[in-house]
Amino acid sequence: MQIKYASQRVEKFFTDFSLMQRKLNPDWVRTIKKQLNAFKAADKFQDFLALGLWHPEPLEGNGKGKNKKWSIHVTKNVRLVFEPNETGKVVTISEEIIIEGVVDYHGSNESWYIP
Q1: How far apart are CA 35 and CA 89, in angstroms?
Q2: Cis omega before residue 115 (within 30°)?
Q3: Whole-angstrom distance between the N-terminal and C-terminal Cα of the chain?
Q4: In this structure, are strands 2-5 and 57-58 parallel, antiparallel, or unpaired?
Q5: Is 18 left (phi over 0), alpha (psi -120 to 50) or beta?
Q6: Strand residue runs (E) in 1-115
Q7: pLDDT band for position 25 (cuts 50, 70, 90)
Q8: Are 56 and 74 in contact (CB under 8 A)?
Q9: Is the CB of residue 82 less than 8 Å from the CB of residue 4?
Q10: What does DSSP say about strands 70-73 and 78-84: parallel, antiparallel, or unpaired?
């Protein structure tokens, strides 16, 4: 799967892990590296979901953008938020994701670490 980023700022953090470590807990950074590798290894979003790792789930109440945002757990409350770039009617056939960032997510309360 191809990985794109929601902004240049997000891309800067996700392509320079030493910079990310200055902002986030080093254990989180190790987990995020593994998650990005799993995204890259999957051909389609469906393949990533089949792994069942990090509890992928659609976020509730995220009407922004054309596609539904998803998250995977970095820790219990910290999530890596991304948006599958749908090309058809089914999200699972997506071959590209757009990384939004890392957020402390508690339902309707969000506190962004990145961006």
Answers
A1: 25
A2: yes
A3: 22
A4: unpaired
A5: alpha
A6: 2-5, 57-58, 70-73, 78-84, 96-106, 109-114
A7: very high
A8: no
A9: no
A10: antiparallel
Query: Could you report the per-residue pLDDT of 70-85, keeping only the tens digit for each?
Result: 999 999 999 999 999 8
Token duo for residue 12:
């800067």
Q: What's the token pair of residue 92?
A: 């699972």
Share of the chain above pLDDT 70, in %: 87
Residue with tokens 């990005």: 36
Report the run of H or E that residue 30 belongs to, with start and end. helix 26-41
Residue 60 pLDDT exceeds 80: no
Confidence bin at 87 (pLDDT 50/70/90): low
* Nearest one of 54, 29, 30 to 42, comparing CA atoms: 54
